Amino acid sequence: MSRKDFESDQDVRWCPGCGDYAILATVQRLMPELGVDREKIVFISGIGCSSRFPYYMNTYGFHSIHGRAPALATGLKASCPDLDVWIVTGDGDALSIGGNHVIHLMRRNVNVQMLLFNNQIYGLTKGQYSPTSELGKVTKSTPYGSLDHPFNPAALALGADATFVARTMDRDPKHMKVILKRAHAHRGAAFAEIYQNCNIFNDGAFFTYTEKESKPENTVFVQHGKPLVFDGGRKGLRLSGFSVEVVDLTNGQWSASDCVVHDETSRDLASVLARVFFKPGFPQPFGVFYAEQRPTYDDEIQKQMELVMDQRGTGDMAALLNAGDTWNIN
Amino acid sequence: MATQAPEKSVKLIPEATILFAGDSGDGMQLTGSQFTLAAAYARNDLATLPDFPAEIRAPAGTTYGVSGFQLRFGSVDVRTPGDDVDLLVAMNPAALKVNLARVHAHSAIIVNTDAFERRNLDLAGYTSNPLEDGSLEDRHVIPVKLTQLTRDALKDTGLGHKEIDRSKNMFALGLALWLYSRPMEPALEWLGNKFAKRPEVRDANTQVLKKGYHYGETTEQFIVRYDVAEAQMPPGRYRAIRGAQAMAMGLVAAGQKSGLTIFYGTYPITPASDLLHELSRLKNFGVMTFQAEDEIAAIGSALGASFGGHLGITGTSGPGLALKSETLGLAVMTELPLVVVNMQRGGPSTGLPTKTEQSDLLQSLFGRNGEAPLPVLAASTPGDCFETAFEACRVALTYMTPVVLLGDGYLGNGSEPWLIPSLDSLPDIDVTFADASHEANAEEGFLPYLRDQKTLARPWARPGTKGLEHRLGGLEKQDKTGNVSYDPENHELMTRLRAEKVERVADIIPKTVVHGDESGDVLVVGWGSTRGAIEAAVVEARKTGKRVGSINLRFLNPLPSDLGEVLSRFEHLIVPEINDGQLVMVLRSRFLLPFKSVTKMQGQPFKSSEIVSAIENASS
Ligand SMILES: Cc1ncc(C[n+]2csc(CCOP(=O)(O)OP(=O)(O)O)c2C)c(N)n1
Ligand code: SF4
């Protein structure tokens, strides 16, 4: 199997230059490495530019309705646990109209991968602000600036007791592939936020973090067991109380050993990192924030079915129909 | 004991209607169901109407806290729970006040006089005691010190006051059983099972039940006692069945017959929750239940399971159906089998959650964006919920379509004797999943929208099947390939194909059965749970020499192909509904005939007398 085997015969119709292309290419490149039979793979999406994704994958796919992909995915995965189910969603799809389903998917820990293409804008409806748009954003629907406080997706997922929370970006395909591979390997609901550039309605929203010049200084790539250093080793993050502070590693006062060592099994640390969120003077974290093993909903529901089957035997329809008080009329 | 009492004469009557009414905490639902079981044991035909408040624990003694259970049983064909009652058992003043209108001149009222004290009278809004102020003079009131007699009977048991008082409903049950000569055995057996782990409670309740029974014999308040002979019913094995139970079993039967696992995704709502309660116990029948975070997730999960090759089902009531409508449209577009059970209740909005209404017909038929036709079926009696549920699944699976299955609160909670069917008597449901042979059906490979010539159903290809990878979605589909298509001609073609497919469901609708006269003066066209009242009214109306018939439509979409012909055989057409005239609107536009609408919107089913008047008015 190669990347080609995962390309469908449909023309890809995103705007030229859209970050969605890079994500599609990465996913198609990743697929052959996963060792899952193509027919076992299902991509389920909601509505939005990003949600067109399943049409371009030569796997099973379901382009559903706005915000509801997690609902379909839960029913599918619970009833067909052998399938490898991926959810593709946008920031509006997942966090606005579908917010309720996302948090329930996380707490139930359904064993699926959720790829949240975050472009901080409503693309398909032509450029209104989204629940992740920064405060004061001027868009078609907010000519005087948006008034609502944005969601912090990673913190939201952690708040919903997600068992896997990660962040990556469209312009770093290598990192993206590593993260998506990890998400796939995780047993449980894997929440992966992908910063995605919408070059038409919100161009450059993440350039600070994705472009060569500014990236080193403004991003920190977290890795389990490694100290949180960035900017080519020149800076680091040190724990200070219940949050982190940026320390200079060049002036001899601090060294890498003073920095926090990332522990992705720590929900507390993950919460601290998730709160480093577009914070002036701080780098934006990328990588796996948190990973925890917890029974998955699909396993548990199947187990319960089997348990009842074992205890009570395969249901006998005639016995069910004739249960309770019956009487004969001749 | 009987020897001390004067011999009572026993009068054989064809049927009787009893209403047990009391406070929500008085155990009236239980009393009613136990009497139902006794009547069933005595081989009576019967119908029940439980009626309880929307509040879980309404303040004691208030009129809005009154809970009632009405049942009618007889040696004759019983189709409704009765219009007026022959016996009202009123456990407190509020119960009397609320139900007095149901009591006719010859009825008897057993009252628990102990409850008629100042506080309760105030709570019920009585300024004077109706037992003393002469307002009930023309009624046959039988005062019984129910509370006191129960306390006396149990004074040596060591049980607490509260516990003792709670068993007074058993006294009322015993007395009613005696009055109508129904057996005590079913109730005794039930108590034995229910309180197997608390023998002292079982014994106390047993004692009170018997006390009530013997009280009838010894007291001089009753001169006659009644008996009701066995009903003539088709031979076979029977059980008493509630609509919700029958519905659950019908769905399970469809799973068994089709060989599919059932996935039931739902969100609790009265009166549909019972279905979840029933189905969630049946995992060993291959029923997976999922309590979702809301109705949208519920139907979404069911559709996801259908995509996976299971029988996806979701259940709800009116407000929930509103939330499901967008996903129903997706199911129409993706042409996946899905059954949506809607147990209707009074609307709009939260409406009357515990009362019955047939007001979601138009929502079911048309409540979606775009041209989104789908089959709609309605069950007509508690027992019929089984067959109609089975049929709804068969239609969904045969035609690859979402189906709405309508029931209502009255059906779900009501019960009747049910001739137990066997799985063999049900038609087969043939499900054939697409396989490798479908891959070869075109050069481009698998065509997910290449239709069956007869049913127009598209193939059902389960994820996991090699070579059939395909993408579904809500965007318009290109004919055959299922690819996204915005082509204008194709959209019209697909819109027509989807409609035509649903029309073809009419091919499996059996010939319309007319109850009563096959042709003549008046045809009563009904649907759903009004069937009993309508058929009883037809029997009544025909006695006057009129030629009257009725039909009950199980299929509301598509309508039976022979319906036009049946309608043409009658001079007058009336359409009774528990709504403001929804079916009549459909029928008028379809047949352009002068249908007369008969409506009722009181949260209660029709009385058959109301239909009789409507029949009379129609032809006069
Ligand atoms: C029920 C419903 N409401 C509204 C819409 C319109 N709509 C389509 S996509 C969208 C927002 C998409 O934004 P996002 O999820 O961020 O995806 P993007 O297009 O940016 O990838 C909206 C509001 C719809 N399709 N359905
Ligand atoms: S509108 Fe934005 S998100 Fe949508 S396809 Fe174009 S660039 Fe991509």
Describe the structure.
The complex is a heterodimer of chains A (330) and B (620). Chain A has 330 residues and is an alpha/beta fold. Helix content of chain A is 31%, strand content 21%. In chain A, the strands form three sheets. Chain A has an eight-stranded mixed beta sheet, with helices on both faces. Chain A starts with 18 loop residues before the first helix and ends with a strand. The mean pLDDT of chain B is 94. Chain B is α/β, with parallel strands linked by helices and 620 residues long. Chain B contains 21 helices and 23 strands. In chain B, helix 6 crosses helix 8 and helix 18 packs across helix 21 (608-619). In chain B, the strands form five sheets. Chain B has a seven-stranded mixed beta sheet with strand order 11-10-12-13-15-14-21, with helices on both faces. Chain B has a six-stranded mixed beta sheet with strand order 3-4-2-5-6-7, with helices on both faces. In chain B, strands 18-20-19-22-23 form a five-stranded mixed beta sheet, with helices on both faces. The interface between A and B is large, with 61 and 72 residues. The complex binds thiamine diphosphate and iron/sulfur cluster (SF4). Iron/sulfur cluster is lined by residues 14-15, 18, 20, 49, 119, 123, 198-201 of chain A.
Summarize this structure briefly.
Chain A has 330 residues and is an alpha/beta fold. Chain A is built from eleven helices and 14 strands. In chain A, strands 2-1-3-4-8-7-13-9 form an eight-stranded mixed sheet, with helices on both faces. A three-stranded antiparallel sheet of chain A has the order 10-11-12.
Question: Would you spell out the secondary-structure blueprint of this structure?
Answer:
The complex is a heterodimer of chains A (about 325) and B (about 625).
Chain A: H1 19-34, E1 41-45, E2 60-63, H2 69-79, E3 84-90, H3 91-97, H4 99-108, E4 113-118, E5 121-122, E6 128-129, H5 153-159, E7 164-169, H6 173-185, E8 190-195, H7 207-210, H8 215-218, E9 219-222, E10 229-230, E11 235-240, E12 243-248, H9 267-274, E13 284-291, H10 297-312, H11 317-321, E14 326-329
Parallel strand pairs in A: 1-2, 1-3, 3-4, 4-8, 7-8, 9-13
Antiparallel strand pairs in A: 5-6, 7-13, 10-11, 11-12
Helix pairs in contact in A: 1-6, 2-10, 3-4
Chain B: E1 9-12, E2 15-23, H1 28-41, E3 45-51, E4 66-74, E5 85-90, H2 93-99, E6 103-112, H3 118-124, E7 140-144, H4 146-154, H5 161-166, H6 168-179, H7 185-194, H8 199-218, E8 224-227, E9 236-242, H9 243-258, E10 262-266, H10 273-280, E11 287-291, H11 295-307, E12 311-316, H12 318-334, E13 338-344, H13 361-366, E14 376-378, H14 384-399, E15 402-408, H15 409-413, E16 415-419, H16 436-439, E17 471-473, H17 488-503, E18 515-516, E19 520-527, H18 531-542, E20 548-553, E21 555-557, H19 563-567, E22 570-577, H20 583-591, E23 595-599, H21 608-619
Parallel strand pairs in B: 1-8, 2-5, 5-6, 6-7, 10-11, 10-12, 12-13, 13-15, 14-15, 19-20, 19-22, 22-23
Antiparallel strand pairs in B: 2-4, 3-4, 9-16, 14-21, 18-20
Bound molecules: thiamine diphosphate (TPP) and iron/sulfur cluster.
